[in-house]
Description:
Helix 1 links the parallel strand 1 (4-10) and strand 2 (32-38). The protein is of the alpha/beta class. Helices cover 40% and strands 15% of the residues. The strands form two sheets. It has a seven-stranded mixed β-sheet with strand order 3-2-1-4-9-6-10, sandwiched between helices. A four-stranded mixed β-sheet has the order 5-11-7-8. The protein has eleven helices and eleven strands. It starts with a strand and ends in a 22-residue tail after the last helix. Helix 8 packs across helix 10 and helix 8 (250-269) packs across helix 11 (308-326).
Amino acid sequence: MPKLSVIVPFYNVQQYAPDTLRSLRTNARPDFEFVLVDDHSKDGTPAILERAAEGLSAVARVRLIRHAENGGLATARNTGLDAAQGEYVTFLDGDDWLARGYLDELVTAIEELGCDFVRVDHVQATGRARTLVRHPLGRRGEVLRPREAILPADRTTSVDYAYAWAGAYHRRLLDKGLLHFTDGLRTAEDRPWIWKLHREAESFAVLNLHGVFYRRGVASSLTQIGDVRQLDFIRAFDQVVDETARDPDADRLLPKAVRTYCAIIAHHLAETEKFEPAVARQLRTMSAAAIQRMPQELLTDVLDRMDLRRSAKLRRLRRKITSQKTGPSKTGTSKPEASKTGTSEAAA
């Protein structure tokens, strides 16, 4: 059994794949396994992977898998998980890279702690600028219960730091079905995944380790493209709310799930100019429907506690739905709902 499987999906990243692959080579060990998944790239990525796999095979175990159709990041990661044989698993995206020796430190740390999974900080790379992004939890190198790191509801917590590649995971989580992603999600695929991990795993720790370089501003990234695939965040957060509502601790955890969902909806509604016009209209329609699906009493409480800017945006959308359902009042206008200010919420 390999000690570590590194799952790396690639899709049309010929400009960045060489850096990613070079960083794997500087982290290679004979007992490490690199699972490279080409998600039906249409540029020069497949040829780059073919050449790199041959070179990497001299220093580590390599598996190169090609999709016959493009399935998206979640599906590509699942392909890698199905093929992975390591005692531990980690992820890397095809346009990011690792510091030399990072994987060795990562494996050493999770073995010493003996927990289900570990989380790490990362370095955000925007052009030539580098910014350290820290995991929200301040307690480092200490084994904790993941469920307790979901709260408080009005703060940025461990489930808001949803990057799958920022950590390592013991194989027992894979065997329990906790590491697979919701198939077909094109964006926000990490959100249901990180919530499930924190609800159902038994132990985790946060490390003072920051060897992952996350490339921002990539033109082909879905965060830069305003097409319909961005709207998959609705499906992702519907899953978070639905699964959390069925949890034994739903009364404690569900307010956090609903609050985060509302924050993400407000964020996208504030950036409708980046979407194609038809997609922007679909965003508003789908967001309105999502608000209607939420537990209404809990939603009211969440909006009361959110900052005024975001709560006002969501209240307007909610009032519009209500007026459309009930029709005009006797005065010809729907009665406005009182707006309250509460504690401001950290970015979700």
